[in-house]
Design a protein that fits this description.
Chain A: Pathway: Amino-acid biosynthesis; L-histidine biosynthesis; L-histidine from 5-phospho-alpha-D-ribose 1-diphosphate: step 5/9. Chain A: Heterodimer of HisH and HisF. Chain A: It is found in: Cytoplasm. The complex is a heterodimer of chains A (220) and B (252). Chain A is α/β, with parallel strands linked by helices and 220 residues long. Helix content of chain A is 30%, strand content 28%. Chain A has one domain: Class I glutamine amidotransferase (GATase) domain (Rossmann fold), CATH 3.40.50. Chain A has an eight-stranded mixed beta sheet. A four-stranded mixed beta sheet of chain A has the order 6-5-7-11, covered by helices on one side. A two-stranded antiparallel ribbon of chain A has the order 8-10. Chain A starts with a strand and ends with a helix. By secondary structure, chain B is α/β, with parallel strands linked by helices. In chain B, helix 1 crosses helix 2. Classes of the chains: A alpha/beta (220), B alpha/beta (252). Chains A and B meet through helix 1, strand 8, strand 10 and helix 6 of A and helix 2 of B.
Amino acid sequence: MIGIIDYGMGNLFSVEKALERLGVEAFISDDHERLRQADGLILPGVGAFKDAMDLLNENGLTKMIHEYVQTGKPFLGICLGMQLLFESSEENGLTNGLSLLPGKVIRFSGVDRKGESYKVPHMGWNKLRFDQDSPLLQGVDEDYVYFVHSFYVDADQSDVVLAEANYDVNVAAVVGKENVFGMQFHPEKSSVMGMQLLRNFTKLTEKGSTADEFYNLSRN
Amino acid sequence: MLTKRIIPCLDVKEGRVVKGIQFVELRDAGDPVELACFYDEQGADELVFLDISASHEGRKTMVEVVKAVASELAIPFTVGGGINSLEDMKRILRAGADKVSLNTAAVLRPELITEGANFYGSQCIVVAIDAKYDEEIGTWRVYTHGGRKATERDVISWAKEAVERGAGELLLTSMDADGEKKGFNIALTKAVSEAVTVPVIASGGAGNADHFAEAFLDGKADAALAASIFHYKETSVAEVKESVKQRGVCIR
Protein backbone atom coordinates (compact mmCIF):
# COMPACT_ATOMS: atom_id res chain seq x y z
CA MET A 1 0.00 0.00 0.00
CA ILE A 2 1.43 3.35 -1.14
CA GLY A 3 0.70 6.58 0.72
CA ILE A 4 0.45 9.85 -1.20
CA ILE A 5 1.22 12.77 1.10
CA ASP A 6 -1.47 15.44 1.05
CA TYR A 7 -0.03 18.75 2.23
CA GLY A 8 -2.18 21.06 0.14
CA MET A 9 0.01 21.26 -2.97
CA GLY A 10 -0.16 19.52 -6.27
CA ASN A 11 -2.09 17.15 -8.40
CA LEU A 12 -2.62 14.21 -6.08
CA PHE A 13 -5.47 12.81 -8.10
CA SER A 14 -3.45 11.95 -11.22
CA VAL A 15 -0.74 10.20 -9.19
CA GLU A 16 -3.36 8.13 -7.41
CA LYS A 17 -5.06 7.24 -10.71
CA ALA A 18 -1.75 6.23 -12.28
CA LEU A 19 -1.08 3.84 -9.42
CA GLU A 20 -4.61 2.51 -9.71
CA ARG A 21 -4.02 1.74 -13.39
CA LEU A 22 -0.92 -0.21 -12.37
CA GLY A 23 -3.08 -2.20 -10.01
CA VAL A 24 -1.29 -0.81 -6.97
CA GLU A 25 -3.27 0.11 -3.89
CA ALA A 26 -2.78 3.71 -2.83
CA PHE A 27 -4.33 6.33 -0.59
CA ILE A 28 -4.09 10.10 -0.24
CA SER A 29 -3.72 11.34 3.32
CA ASP A 30 -2.31 13.96 5.66
CA ASP A 31 -2.64 11.65 8.66
CA HIS A 32 0.82 10.91 10.07
CA GLU A 33 -0.09 7.54 11.54
CA ARG A 34 -1.67 6.28 8.34
CA LEU A 35 1.25 7.48 6.25
CA ARG A 36 3.74 5.80 8.60
CA GLN A 37 2.02 2.46 7.99
CA ALA A 38 2.42 2.70 4.19
CA ASP A 39 4.93 0.42 2.41
CA GLY A 40 6.13 3.39 0.41
CA LEU A 41 5.43 7.12 0.32
CA ILE A 42 5.08 9.55 -2.57
CA LEU A 43 5.52 13.30 -2.12
CA PRO A 44 3.96 14.98 -5.16
CA GLY A 45 3.88 18.71 -5.67
CA VAL A 46 3.21 21.56 -8.02
CA GLY A 47 3.75 25.17 -7.01
CA ALA A 48 6.30 27.17 -5.07
CA PHE A 49 9.11 25.62 -2.99
CA LYS A 50 8.73 27.99 -0.02
CA ASP A 51 4.94 27.54 0.26
CA ALA A 52 5.43 23.77 0.16
CA MET A 53 8.15 23.75 2.85
CA ASP A 54 6.07 26.05 5.06
CA LEU A 55 3.14 23.63 4.80
CA LEU A 56 5.31 20.57 5.50
CA ASN A 57 6.81 22.28 8.55
CA GLU A 58 3.48 23.58 9.87
CA ASN A 59 1.83 20.17 9.58
CA GLY A 60 4.71 18.36 11.24
CA LEU A 61 5.22 16.38 8.05
CA THR A 62 8.90 17.31 7.79
CA LYS A 63 9.62 15.34 10.96
CA MET A 64 7.37 12.48 9.92
CA ILE A 65 9.13 12.21 6.53
CA HIS A 66 12.58 12.10 8.16
CA GLU A 67 11.47 9.37 10.54
CA TYR A 68 9.88 7.43 7.70
CA VAL A 69 13.02 7.56 5.57
CA GLN A 70 15.03 6.28 8.57
CA THR A 71 12.99 3.06 8.50
CA GLY A 72 14.44 2.26 5.06
CA LYS A 73 11.06 2.13 3.31
CA PRO A 74 11.06 3.62 -0.20
CA PHE A 75 10.24 7.30 -0.63
CA LEU A 76 9.62 9.11 -3.93
CA GLY A 77 9.35 12.86 -4.58
CA ILE A 78 7.75 13.96 -7.85
CA CYS A 79 8.38 17.33 -9.56
CA LEU A 80 8.38 19.93 -6.76
CA GLY A 81 8.34 16.93 -4.42
CA MET A 82 11.75 15.92 -5.80
CA GLN A 83 13.16 19.43 -5.37
CA LEU A 84 12.02 19.43 -1.74
CA LEU A 85 14.31 16.44 -1.06
CA PHE A 86 17.39 18.67 -1.55
CA GLU A 87 19.10 21.10 0.82
CA SER A 88 17.81 24.40 -0.46
CA SER A 89 16.13 26.28 -3.28
CA GLU A 90 16.64 29.82 -4.51
CA GLU A 91 12.95 30.14 -5.42
CA ASN A 92 11.50 33.23 -3.64
CA GLY A 93 14.69 33.80 -1.69
CA LEU A 94 16.79 30.98 -0.26
CA THR A 95 14.63 28.35 1.47
CA ASN A 96 15.84 25.23 3.23
CA GLY A 97 14.50 21.91 1.97
CA LEU A 98 14.22 18.46 3.56
CA SER A 99 17.98 17.88 3.08
CA LEU A 100 17.53 14.16 2.40
CA LEU A 101 19.76 14.53 -0.67
CA PRO A 102 22.80 16.78 -1.17
CA GLY A 103 22.39 19.66 -3.60
CA LYS A 104 20.71 22.96 -4.37
CA VAL A 105 17.73 23.87 -6.53
CA ILE A 106 18.40 26.79 -8.89
CA ARG A 107 16.50 28.64 -11.62
CA PHE A 108 16.98 28.20 -15.38
CA SER A 109 18.76 31.37 -16.46
CA GLY A 110 16.65 31.69 -19.62
CA VAL A 111 19.78 32.71 -21.58
CA ASP A 112 22.13 30.19 -23.16
CA ARG A 113 25.93 30.35 -23.50
CA LYS A 114 25.66 32.22 -26.79
CA GLY A 115 23.53 34.87 -25.13
CA GLU A 116 20.34 33.72 -26.81
CA SER A 117 17.21 33.50 -24.73
CA TYR A 118 15.27 30.25 -24.33
CA LYS A 119 11.86 29.56 -22.85
CA VAL A 120 11.24 29.01 -19.15
CA PRO A 121 9.50 26.90 -17.83
CA HIS A 122 11.09 23.81 -19.30
CA MET A 123 7.74 22.49 -20.52
CA GLY A 124 7.17 19.42 -22.62
CA TRP A 125 8.71 16.06 -23.56
CA ASN A 126 12.43 15.59 -23.13
CA LYS A 127 14.60 12.50 -23.42
CA LEU A 128 16.26 10.85 -20.44
CA ARG A 129 19.88 9.80 -20.43
CA PHE A 130 20.75 7.21 -17.79
CA ASP A 131 23.82 7.90 -15.63
CA GLN A 132 23.80 5.15 -13.00
CA ASP A 133 22.26 1.74 -12.50
CA SER A 134 19.25 1.82 -10.26
CA PRO A 135 16.32 -0.47 -9.49
CA LEU A 136 14.18 2.45 -10.63
CA LEU A 137 15.57 2.25 -14.17
CA GLN A 138 15.68 -1.53 -14.51
CA GLY A 139 14.14 -2.87 -17.72
CA VAL A 140 13.43 0.64 -18.98
CA ASP A 141 14.85 2.17 -22.17
CA GLU A 142 15.98 5.79 -22.40
CA ASP A 143 12.90 7.60 -23.68
CA TYR A 144 10.85 10.80 -23.48
CA VAL A 145 9.06 12.00 -20.34
CA TYR A 146 6.96 15.08 -19.60
CA PHE A 147 8.55 17.99 -17.70
CA VAL A 148 7.08 21.24 -16.38
CA HIS A 149 9.40 23.28 -14.17
CA SER A 150 11.34 26.53 -13.91
CA PHE A 151 13.83 25.42 -11.23
CA TYR A 152 16.18 22.47 -11.41
CA VAL A 153 19.01 20.56 -9.75
CA ASP A 154 22.26 20.83 -11.74
CA ALA A 155 23.15 17.27 -12.80
CA ASP A 156 26.83 18.21 -13.14
CA GLN A 157 26.95 19.26 -9.50
CA SER A 158 25.39 16.20 -7.92
CA ASP A 159 26.38 12.56 -7.45
CA VAL A 160 22.86 11.34 -6.68
CA VAL A 161 21.71 11.74 -10.30
CA LEU A 162 20.47 8.49 -11.85
CA ALA A 163 19.20 10.01 -15.11
CA GLU A 164 19.38 13.44 -16.67
CA ALA A 165 17.85 15.47 -19.48
CA ASN A 166 19.36 18.33 -21.41
CA TYR A 167 17.69 21.74 -21.58
CA ASP A 168 20.55 24.17 -22.15
CA VAL A 169 22.02 22.71 -18.94
CA ASN A 170 22.06 19.11 -17.65
CA VAL A 171 18.93 18.75 -15.59
CA ALA A 172 18.72 16.12 -12.83
CA ALA A 173 15.71 14.07 -13.95
CA VAL A 174 15.82 10.95 -11.76
CA VAL A 175 17.72 11.10 -8.48
CA GLY A 176 18.24 8.52 -5.77
CA LYS A 177 20.26 7.55 -2.77
CA GLU A 178 19.52 4.44 -0.74
CA ASN A 179 15.72 4.43 -0.27
CA VAL A 180 15.10 8.08 -1.26
CA PHE A 181 14.17 8.76 -4.90
CA GLY A 182 13.00 11.71 -6.93
CA MET A 183 11.70 12.41 -10.44
CA GLN A 184 11.71 15.97 -11.77
CA PHE A 185 9.24 15.14 -14.56
CA HIS A 186 5.70 13.83 -14.12
CA PRO A 187 5.77 10.02 -14.46
CA GLU A 188 1.98 10.00 -14.10
CA LYS A 189 1.78 12.10 -17.27
CA SER A 190 4.60 10.45 -19.21
CA SER A 191 2.65 7.77 -21.06
CA VAL A 192 4.17 4.27 -21.18
CA MET A 193 7.66 5.31 -20.00
CA GLY A 194 6.23 7.07 -16.94
CA MET A 195 4.15 4.05 -16.02
CA GLN A 196 7.22 1.77 -16.20
CA LEU A 197 9.15 4.05 -13.86
CA LEU A 198 6.28 4.23 -11.37
CA ARG A 199 5.93 0.47 -11.60
CA ASN A 200 9.62 0.05 -10.71
CA PHE A 201 9.15 2.25 -7.65
CA THR A 202 6.13 0.28 -6.48
CA LYS A 203 8.07 -2.98 -6.96
CA LEU A 204 10.49 -1.77 -4.29
CA THR A 205 7.62 -1.43 -1.86
CA GLU A 206 6.27 -4.88 -2.65
CA LYS A 207 9.43 -6.46 -1.41
CA GLY A 208 8.95 -4.58 1.85
CA SER A 209 12.66 -4.05 1.55
CA THR A 210 15.08 -2.22 3.75
CA ALA A 211 17.78 0.06 2.42
CA ASP A 212 20.26 -2.85 2.47
CA GLU A 213 18.23 -4.86 0.05
CA PHE A 214 18.17 -1.91 -2.35
CA TYR A 215 21.92 -1.99 -2.49
CA ASN A 216 21.81 -5.66 -3.39
CA LEU A 217 19.16 -5.00 -6.00
CA SER A 218 21.20 -2.29 -7.68
CA ARG A 219 24.36 -4.43 -7.58
CA ASN A 220 22.70 -7.33 -9.31
CA MET B 1 16.44 18.36 -26.31
CA LEU B 2 12.90 19.39 -25.70
CA THR B 3 10.57 18.12 -28.40
CA LYS B 4 7.93 20.07 -30.27
CA ARG B 5 4.44 18.95 -29.31
CA ILE B 6 1.54 17.77 -31.49
CA ILE B 7 -1.81 18.46 -29.84
CA PRO B 8 -5.20 17.19 -31.07
CA CYS B 9 -8.12 19.33 -29.90
CA LEU B 10 -11.49 17.84 -29.01
CA ASP B 11 -14.69 19.89 -28.93
CA VAL B 12 -16.99 18.73 -26.15
CA LYS B 13 -20.65 19.63 -26.00
CA GLU B 14 -22.86 18.53 -23.11
CA GLY B 15 -20.30 15.88 -22.19
CA ARG B 16 -19.91 14.39 -25.68
CA VAL B 17 -17.24 14.94 -28.29
CA VAL B 18 -18.69 16.55 -31.37
CA LYS B 19 -17.11 15.96 -34.80
CA GLY B 20 -14.84 12.94 -34.42
CA ILE B 21 -17.35 10.85 -36.32
CA GLN B 22 -14.83 9.18 -38.56
CA PHE B 23 -13.45 6.83 -35.98
CA VAL B 24 -14.89 3.57 -37.13
CA GLU B 25 -12.67 1.48 -34.90
CA LEU B 26 -14.08 3.07 -31.78
CA ARG B 27 -17.07 1.65 -30.05
CA ASP B 28 -18.40 5.12 -29.44
CA ALA B 29 -16.92 8.01 -31.39
CA GLY B 30 -18.54 10.55 -29.10
CA ASP B 31 -16.96 9.27 -25.91
CA PRO B 32 -14.24 11.70 -24.71
CA VAL B 33 -12.33 9.00 -22.81
CA GLU B 34 -12.19 6.63 -25.76
CA LEU B 35 -11.05 9.36 -28.13
CA ALA B 36 -8.47 10.65 -25.66
CA CYS B 37 -6.93 7.19 -25.30
CA PHE B 38 -7.02 6.70 -29.06
CA TYR B 39 -4.93 9.86 -29.57
CA ASP B 40 -2.59 8.90 -26.72
CA GLU B 41 -1.89 5.57 -28.42
CA GLN B 42 -1.21 7.40 -31.67
CA GLY B 43 1.51 9.41 -29.96
CA ALA B 44 -0.26 12.69 -29.16
CA ASP B 45 1.94 14.72 -26.79
CA GLU B 46 -0.93 16.46 -25.11
CA LEU B 47 -4.66 17.03 -25.59
CA VAL B 48 -6.93 20.05 -25.42
CA PHE B 49 -10.61 19.73 -24.57
CA LEU B 50 -12.74 22.69 -25.54
CA ASP B 51 -16.09 22.84 -23.78
CA ILE B 52 -18.59 24.32 -26.21
CA SER B 53 -21.66 23.55 -24.09
CA ALA B 54 -24.19 26.32 -24.16
CA SER B 55 -25.96 25.36 -20.97
CA HIS B 56 -25.07 25.39 -17.31
CA GLU B 57 -25.86 21.67 -17.16
CA GLY B 58 -23.39 21.04 -19.97
CA ARG B 59 -20.68 22.85 -18.03
CA LYS B 60 -21.34 20.76 -14.95
CA THR B 61 -21.10 17.63 -17.08
CA MET B 62 -17.64 18.77 -18.21
CA VAL B 63 -16.31 18.21 -14.70
CA GLU B 64 -17.41 14.58 -14.94
CA VAL B 65 -15.75 14.29 -18.34
CA VAL B 66 -12.49 15.68 -16.92
CA LYS B 67 -12.59 13.17 -14.07
CA ALA B 68 -13.18 10.27 -16.42
CA VAL B 69 -10.43 11.37 -18.81
CA ALA B 70 -7.94 11.94 -15.97
CA SER B 71 -8.55 8.41 -14.71
CA GLU B 72 -7.52 6.87 -18.01
CA LEU B 73 -5.14 9.26 -19.73
CA ALA B 74 -1.40 9.23 -18.98
CA ILE B 75 -0.49 12.38 -20.92
CA PRO B 76 -1.18 16.02 -19.95
CA PHE B 77 -4.41 17.70 -20.96
CA THR B 78 -5.82 21.21 -20.97
CA VAL B 79 -9.45 22.23 -20.61
CA GLY B 80 -10.82 25.46 -22.06
CA GLY B 81 -14.18 27.05 -22.75
CA GLY B 82 -16.41 28.84 -20.28
CA ILE B 83 -13.81 29.21 -17.54
CA ASN B 84 -14.66 32.58 -16.02
CA SER B 85 -13.52 32.52 -12.42
CA LEU B 86 -11.04 31.09 -9.95
CA GLU B 87 -13.89 28.85 -8.85
CA ASP B 88 -14.25 27.44 -12.40
CA MET B 89 -10.49 26.82 -12.59
CA LYS B 90 -10.54 25.06 -9.25
CA ARG B 91 -13.34 22.71 -10.34
CA ILE B 92 -11.57 21.71 -13.54
CA LEU B 93 -8.07 21.35 -12.04
CA ARG B 94 -9.33 19.42 -9.03
CA ALA B 95 -11.14 17.07 -11.37
CA GLY B 96 -7.72 16.18 -12.81
CA ALA B 97 -6.95 18.54 -15.71
CA ASP B 98 -3.32 19.67 -15.88
CA LYS B 99 -4.00 23.12 -17.28
CA VAL B 100 -6.91 25.45 -17.88
CA SER B 101 -7.21 27.73 -20.85
CA LEU B 102 -8.68 31.22 -20.43
CA ASN B 103 -9.91 33.31 -23.33
CA THR B 104 -12.75 35.87 -23.17
CA ALA B 105 -12.75 36.00 -19.36
CA ALA B 106 -9.06 36.92 -19.33
CA VAL B 107 -9.59 39.76 -21.81
CA LEU B 108 -12.55 41.10 -19.85
CA ARG B 109 -10.72 40.83 -16.51
CA PRO B 110 -6.97 40.29 -16.93
CA GLU B 111 -6.50 40.01 -13.13
CA LEU B 112 -8.00 36.53 -13.48
CA ILE B 113 -4.72 35.33 -15.06
CA THR B 114 -2.73 36.53 -12.05
CA GLU B 115 -5.19 35.07 -9.57
CA GLY B 116 -4.98 31.68 -11.27
CA ALA B 117 -1.19 31.79 -11.57
CA ASN B 118 -0.75 32.76 -7.92
CA PHE B 119 -3.01 29.99 -6.75
CA TYR B 120 -2.02 27.14 -9.06
CA GLY B 121 1.24 28.26 -10.62
CA SER B 122 1.83 29.65 -14.10
CA GLN B 123 2.39 26.19 -15.51
CA CYS B 124 -1.34 25.44 -15.46
CA ILE B 125 -2.61 28.75 -16.81
CA VAL B 126 -2.88 28.87 -20.59
CA VAL B 127 -4.19 32.05 -22.20
CA ALA B 128 -5.94 31.45 -25.52
CA ILE B 129 -5.85 34.30 -28.01
CA ASP B 130 -8.07 34.49 -31.09
CA ALA B 131 -6.30 36.72 -33.60
CA LYS B 132 -7.48 38.32 -36.84
CA TYR B 133 -5.54 40.64 -39.11
CA ASP B 134 -6.85 44.19 -39.27
CA GLU B 135 -5.87 46.12 -42.43
CA GLU B 136 -6.65 49.46 -40.81
CA ILE B 137 -4.24 49.16 -37.92
CA GLY B 138 -1.79 47.01 -39.87
CA THR B 139 -1.57 44.30 -37.24
CA TRP B 140 -3.56 41.54 -35.58
CA ARG B 141 -6.52 42.31 -33.35
CA VAL B 142 -7.75 40.22 -30.41
CA TYR B 143 -11.27 38.76 -30.73
CA THR B 144 -13.41 37.34 -27.94
CA HIS B 145 -16.64 35.37 -27.55
CA GLY B 146 -15.56 32.58 -29.85
CA GLY B 147 -14.32 35.03 -32.47
CA ARG B 148 -17.58 36.96 -32.68
CA LYS B 149 -16.47 40.16 -30.97
CA ALA B 150 -13.59 42.43 -31.94
CA THR B 151 -11.72 44.14 -29.11
CA GLU B 152 -9.48 47.19 -29.05
CA ARG B 153 -6.50 45.04 -28.11
CA ASP B 154 -3.56 44.33 -30.35
CA VAL B 155 -2.41 40.68 -30.25
CA ILE B 156 1.30 41.23 -29.57
CA SER B 157 0.78 43.60 -26.67
CA TRP B 158 -1.97 41.39 -25.22
CA ALA B 159 0.31 38.35 -25.49
CA LYS B 160 3.04 40.19 -23.59
CA GLU B 161 0.59 41.42 -20.96
CA ALA B 162 -0.87 37.94 -20.47
CA VAL B 163 2.62 36.54 -19.83
CA GLU B 164 3.51 39.38 -17.45
CA ARG B 165 0.32 38.63 -15.57
CA GLY B 166 1.30 34.99 -15.16
CA ALA B 167 0.26 32.98 -18.23
CA GLY B 168 2.53 29.95 -18.55
CA GLU B 169 1.68 29.24 -22.16
CA LEU B 170 -0.25 30.86 -25.04
CA LEU B 171 -2.68 29.09 -27.36
CA LEU B 172 -2.69 31.27 -30.45
CA THR B 173 -5.44 30.77 -33.02
CA SER B 174 -5.35 32.55 -36.36
CA MET B 175 -8.95 33.27 -37.35
CA ASP B 176 -7.73 34.15 -40.83
CA ALA B 177 -6.14 30.73 -41.33
CA ASP B 178 -8.73 28.70 -39.40
CA GLY B 179 -10.74 26.39 -41.62
CA GLU B 180 -8.76 27.34 -44.75
CA LYS B 181 -6.49 24.27 -44.50
CA LYS B 182 -3.66 26.18 -46.17
CA GLY B 183 -1.30 25.93 -43.22
CA PHE B 184 -0.68 27.75 -39.97
CA ASN B 185 -0.35 31.53 -39.96
CA ILE B 186 3.43 31.72 -39.87
CA ALA B 187 3.80 35.51 -39.62
CA LEU B 188 1.45 35.71 -36.64
CA THR B 189 2.93 32.69 -34.88
CA LYS B 190 6.49 33.95 -35.31
CA ALA B 191 5.62 37.47 -34.16
CA VAL B 192 4.01 36.23 -30.95
CA SER B 193 6.54 33.49 -30.25
CA GLU B 194 9.41 35.98 -30.51
CA ALA B 195 7.60 38.50 -28.32
CA VAL B 196 7.14 36.24 -25.28
CA THR B 197 9.25 34.00 -23.06
CA VAL B 198 6.69 31.20 -22.61
CA PRO B 199 5.74 28.38 -25.02
CA VAL B 200 3.35 29.22 -27.85
CA ILE B 201 0.90 26.71 -29.34
CA ALA B 202 0.05 27.48 -32.98
CA SER B 203 -3.53 26.80 -33.98
CA GLY B 204 -5.74 27.25 -37.03
CA GLY B 205 -5.11 26.32 -40.63
CA ALA B 206 -3.54 22.85 -40.53
CA GLY B 207 -4.53 21.09 -43.75
CA ASN B 208 -1.95 18.35 -44.06
CA ALA B 209 0.90 16.71 -42.18
CA ASP B 210 3.55 18.91 -43.82
CA HIS B 211 2.06 22.10 -42.44
CA PHE B 212 3.24 21.27 -38.93
CA ALA B 213 6.97 21.50 -39.63
CA GLU B 214 6.45 25.03 -40.99
CA ALA B 215 4.83 26.11 -37.74
CA PHE B 216 7.90 24.93 -35.83
CA LEU B 217 10.71 25.88 -38.22
CA ASP B 218 9.36 29.17 -39.63
CA GLY B 219 6.75 30.09 -37.03
CA LYS B 220 8.97 29.26 -34.04
CA ALA B 221 6.01 27.60 -32.33
CA ASP B 222 6.64 25.20 -29.44
CA ALA B 223 3.55 23.15 -30.14
CA ALA B 224 0.91 22.88 -32.87
CA LEU B 225 -2.76 22.11 -32.43
CA ALA B 226 -5.33 20.81 -34.87
CA ALA B 227 -8.82 19.41 -34.72
CA SER B 228 -10.59 18.51 -37.92
CA ILE B 229 -7.72 16.98 -39.89
CA PHE B 230 -7.28 14.46 -37.08
CA HIS B 231 -10.99 13.88 -36.52
CA TYR B 232 -11.75 13.34 -40.16
CA LYS B 233 -8.62 11.24 -40.59
CA GLU B 234 -7.13 13.43 -43.27
CA THR B 235 -3.91 12.64 -41.47
CA SER B 236 -2.89 10.98 -38.22
CA VAL B 237 -0.74 12.09 -35.30
CA ALA B 238 1.80 9.43 -36.30
CA GLU B 239 1.93 10.72 -39.88
CA VAL B 240 2.39 14.31 -38.70
CA LYS B 241 5.22 13.25 -36.41
CA GLU B 242 6.96 11.39 -39.22
CA SER B 243 6.69 14.41 -41.50
CA VAL B 244 8.01 16.78 -38.84
CA LYS B 245 10.85 14.44 -37.97
CA GLN B 246 11.95 14.27 -41.60
CA ARG B 247 12.35 18.02 -41.61
CA GLY B 248 14.82 17.71 -38.74
CA VAL B 249 12.55 18.83 -35.93
CA CYS B 250 13.02 17.12 -32.56
CA ILE B 251 9.88 15.12 -31.86
CA ARG B 252 8.88 12.32 -29.50
